[in-house]
Write a structure and sequence with these properties.
The chain is α+β, with helices and mostly antiparallel strands and 150 residues long. It has one domain (2-142): Thiol Ester Dehydrase, Chain A, CATH 3.10.129.10. The chain is 22% helix and 33% strand. It has three helices and eight strands. It has helices at residues 35-51, 55-60, 135-144, and strands spanning 2-3, 13-19, 63-64, 67-74, 83-91, 97-106, 112-121, 123-124. The strands form two sheets. A six-stranded antiparallel β-sheet has the order 1-2-5-6-7-4, covered by helices on one side. The longest helix is centred in the first third of the chain and has 17 residues, at 35-51. The two termini are 29 Å apart. The relative contact order is 0.21.
Amino acid sequence: MRHSEPGSDKRLKESIEIKIRFSEVDSVKMAWHGSYVKYMEDGREAFGRKYGLEYSLIFDNGYVAPIVDMHLQYKCPVTIDDEIIVETSYIPSSGAKLLFEYDIYRKRDRAHVLHATTIQLFTTKEGEFEISEPKFLAQWREKVKDLISE
């Protein structure tokens, strides 16, 4: 289920809820650390759907956007059947990159489970890094600029 939660800051943000499945826990019954990368991906996809920055837009404009930097800070474990809230926020930047921040909370008590950031750079489909802002990205940023306070 997807829902947006208004915050005190004016940011592009989307929240989704995910139930921890058996296949996502390790031998000590806690969510495996690698599962969080998937939850972040789910958050980015939901963000893209909400704000018109889907991966298909990037692909259709001749680019891919691989993650080149990722930082994760684990705060609190979750286990099978816990429900989590994944909040994905766009961090304004310039140039040919996307910055996102993630906060994951356990739904039942709002315990802070994880804080993370990612940086995605744009490359052509042939793998060449784009050094200037792609035209479609400049258009998207212009479209959403009034929704953001820096």
